[in-house]
Amino acid sequence: MSQSVYEQLRAEIVSGKIDPGTSLVETSIAARFKISRTPAREALRQLEQDGLLERRYRGLVVRTRSPEEILEIYGVRVVLEGLAARTAAESRTEFDLANLASRHAQMLDLNQDDADLMATSNRQFHEALWLSSHNRVLVDMLLRLNSHLIRYPATTLSKPGRWVTVLEDHRCLIDAIAAREVQLAGSIAEAHMTAAREIRLNQFAAERPQVSS
Q1: pLDDT of residue 170
Q2: What is the DSSP string of the chain?
Q3: I need a labelling partner for 95 at 20 to 30 A (CA). Which of 17, 72, 134, 157 fits?
Q4: Which fold has domain 2-62?
């Protein structure tokens, strides 16, 4: 029951149906879904773990979005993606290379009119990269960090020309990992995520309402 409530609230937060800054109270959630307070509490706990809610003086509220948070998220992700790529270059197996190549091939065949599918396939490629590091702690950290971007629904892949760049970056990354070029793999991954950060910041600025003078 708590999972069903969690999934519905999560969808509403991500879609923007529940505004940033909205307070979510255990008793109100229980009343809305006609459940006891225990599953309501568990659903809110999961949302907090996902980074979708934060604790303030008045309790749990939907986290607001900001350029500062984007910088924080990508500041960590650039480092961790670089580490994952370097570690993958050291630890990868033939299966890892085949998995990365398969994910890349799927991306090459995608219809570029489907932004959601593009974002999903891109995430799957990165998850394959993380798994190639064979570092479970690193994979867990990246999965948790990636959940913070859920509240920023616009994909960076929607920028004209970005998809082509992403595909080329991924190809170069696979080549570096296959050749066990540790530092090169790390540099490619870090540059890749740094570019994504700049696009994300520009998207956020474009989404904010302009104040007339």
Answers
A1: 98
A2: -HHHHHHHHHHHHHHTSSPTT-B--HHHHHHHHT--HHHHHHHHHHHHHTTSEEEETTEEEEPPP-HHHHHHHHHHHHHHHHHHHHHHHHH--HHHHHHHHHHHHHHHTS-TT-HHHHHHHHHHHHHHHHHTTT-HHHHHHHHHHHHGGGG--S-GGGSTTHHHHHHHHHHHHHHHHHTT-HHHHHHHHHHHHHHHHHHHHHHHHHHSPPPP-
A3: 157
A4: Arc Repressor Mutant, subunit A (1.10.10)
